[in-house]
What does this fold into?
Amino acid sequence: MSERVVLCYGDSNTYGSIPGGGDRFPRDMRWPGVLAAQLGDDWHVIEEGLGGRTTVFDDPILPDRNGRTYLRPCLLSHQPLDLVVIFLGTNDLKARFAASAADIAGGVAVLTEIALAVAPKVLVLGLPELVSYTDVDGFHLDAAGHRTIGEAVGQRIAAMF
Amino acid sequence: MSERVVLCYGDSNTYGSIPGGGDRFPRDMRWPGVLAAQLGDDWHVIEEGLGGRTTVFDDPILPDRNGRTYLRPCLLSHQPLDLVVIFLGTNDLKARFAASAADIAGGVAVLTEIALAVAPKVLVLGLPELVSYTDVDGFHLDAAGHRTIGEAVGQRIAAMF
Amino acid sequence: MSERVVLCYGDSNTYGSIPGGGDRFPRDMRWPGVLAAQLGDDWHVIEEGLGGRTTVFDDPILPDRNGRTYLRPCLLSHQPLDLVVIFLGTNDLKARFAASAADIAGGVAVLTEIALAVAPKVLVLGLPELVSYTDVDGFHLDAAGHRTIGEAVGQRIAAMF
Amino acid sequence: MSERVVLCYGDSNTYGSIPGGGDRFPRDMRWPGVLAAQLGDDWHVIEEGLGGRTTVFDDPILPDRNGRTYLRPCLLSHQPLDLVVIFLGTNDLKARFAASAADIAGGVAVLTEIALAVAPKVLVLGLPELVSYTDVDGFHLDAAGHRTIGEAVGQRIAAMF
Amino acid sequence: MSERVVLCYGDSNTYGSIPGGGDRFPRDMRWPGVLAAQLGDDWHVIEEGLGGRTTVFDDPILPDRNGRTYLRPCLLSHQPLDLVVIFLGTNDLKARFAASAADIAGGVAVLTEIALAVAPKVLVLGLPELVSYTDVDGFHLDAAGHRTIGEAVGQRIAAMF
Amino acid sequence: MSERVVLCYGDSNTYGSIPGGGDRFPRDMRWPGVLAAQLGDDWHVIEEGLGGRTTVFDDPILPDRNGRTYLRPCLLSHQPLDLVVIFLGTNDLKARFAASAADIAGGVAVLTEIALAVAPKVLVLGLPELVSYTDVDGFHLDAAGHRTIGEAVGQRIAAMF
It folds into this structure.
């Protein structure tokens, strides 16, 4: 069987920012790394996490964070893809986007439609079902959170393919 | 020693398009794959090749191909980086960009400056020194070309680090 | 006397969305159609209603809805024009635009200025003076509302020309 | 049978510019008008011709002429559509676009793909097969040219539906 | 000693709008003029104040007011510069930007970083420390306010150079 | 009589680049400075010259050089203006803009129209009538060229006002 490919598309919680600091967890502690270990050699896992990334909003203060603008060339660069995991929405909560919960869901829907034009399946992560955020800053995952997410995504993928 | 990271930023010749068709060479035959094999476990090699990508030009016919627009979020998503390899310019030759050789060099210089704001080193590939293109379509690498490039870049990296 | 031309520029209430569904009222039930029937053969009525259209805001979730971007080429395509009727503002109320009543009025003023650079007269519809919205969804016109608007605009035009 | 709708999307030759001057032929002499007369009451014909419109190029000297930017909101505003007729490409020949014949064909292909996402059929007009341009300025249709185009499109539509 | 150059970059309070009207205070009454008089012939003072200018926000109602877009070409046009004084933020308070105090500070930080890439020093004015606004409209400086600002900036510059 | 104001809007030849190097002539040797000396205290002369500035073209290699984007906020910042002198076009000759002589004239016409919406008079400089360029690089003015331009513009202004 040929290698399968999954793209992990997200923000600082996919990048693996260490809560309370700018540093990054090592590759094998970040949830895409946990996922890669769990999936084994049959899968190639691509990390695409950028701190501050929104679903579809241009951020006038932090440029280059619009998740829609970047997604299509990113998909085309990494195709053929078997799965795209989208884990975004937290940064949309910033006051300057004035986004309602429905707007954020709408933004994720826009990304999902773009992804489905290139990849056959999309998995959207809604974090609250999975883990509680770290106490350090209230919205970043700690090492245990990454492990939980990586394993949960791995189980879901095992059930999907 | 901790893992080192290199980003391979290019067009269809980094994506690994098979000459004469839309398909993609397997991961280990594409030059970033050849490079990864040569560098071994000390290095993590990130592929970022997109067919039609230019240095700095918006393509009105093929959207999402401007190499400048995409580069900065791509660097930020994959940092910390030890090296960026830039292998672009061929698509700038399309008549609709009206680009002179100096313009293409200028475009690569723009990308180099952006990359050096995030990564400590940049390696720019000028292909003609390395390989001749395939006969099939005159501008795509065949498997031998990928091997030559991957090995040459590997040797250069060995000398740089 | 040569034919006169009026452009009806609006959102879903000019498009004629049927409340509670995506379908469209037939041409003669939409207010521009009611207007055309009332004005008779001396006038040519052009419909330009797009669901979700704002006055001047880019909608990151629903693209192509900025009423300002589209207005100038639309005017130039249909000139010479005797009148532009602008019936916009409802979609500006979405939370993500964070627009005050003064902002919406400002958006309409921007459109009016653009229209007056091409057409000699502009008529701005402020709906609440004319009809109450349907009960189905609270912001779409029903068939009676379209009839009321079309006839009211027709009477106003008769008084203007 | 309910009314069918065709959108005529083009440049000055769809607008109906009189060769050698800025004026516009009357509605019934422009090719969409000729077409409407020929198709009769079963069809509604929408004119969308703008002088200087390109297929996909932004014109830095003449703003608002990019045929791609305008097409999608135009389609959405006039849907449901049975047919889109695209008659563009002449303005792409301006030197500042540096467009090859293949580029212009590529631009038309982009528009066709956008149109087919909304309408079931697209008819692309390649003028040279149909008429010779007027002697006055070499690239505008005279009244006879409009009649020829309108009738030819009408016959093609009769064969398509 | 060669002439030193300071760029005063701001909004209507640098432009010198007279409170309650659209007119402009004369050059020597505006704070950059007061500053020029105080600094004397050793300095060249450049005024760059535009009513409605924001730090980094595009204003959909009032175009051309984004302070970030304009800043870099403005700096390059007036270099070499010894100092940039940034006096912006008031217009960011408009409801349609939905900007928090932290966002406005973030916007000023973006401008400061851009300025420091061209000029060696930046001075950011936070108005409330200096003057109370006029009673006429609550956010425009009167003549006394301009004098206070100009003199305070002059003293700060004297201490910096 | 109150002070009159003239804005000098141009490229490196208004900035005063010294031929063969990146440095800038001193203020009194640049043509706007020559002009200021000639016009005396009745006039305030504003310099706005940026190397690489085009009339209306975005330069993908050298950002922030589009003369149209910058002009309107620049005019609004410096109004009320009695005159705008436009001295642009040389950079449009770069191959990547593919601009014909008519295109460059068209670009200047676009700028003139923008300027006339704010200022009552515009003076367009066509350099070849005035001076020959320096031998050093073939397109930059030397000190004598600046003097010739400044004096010629001064005489023209004397005749206009």
Observations:
- The beta strands of chain A are 4-10, 43-49, 83-87, 122-124.
- The interface with chain C takes residues 56-58, 68, 97-100, 103, 106-107, 110 of chain A (CB under 8 Å).
- The mean pLDDT of chain A is 93.
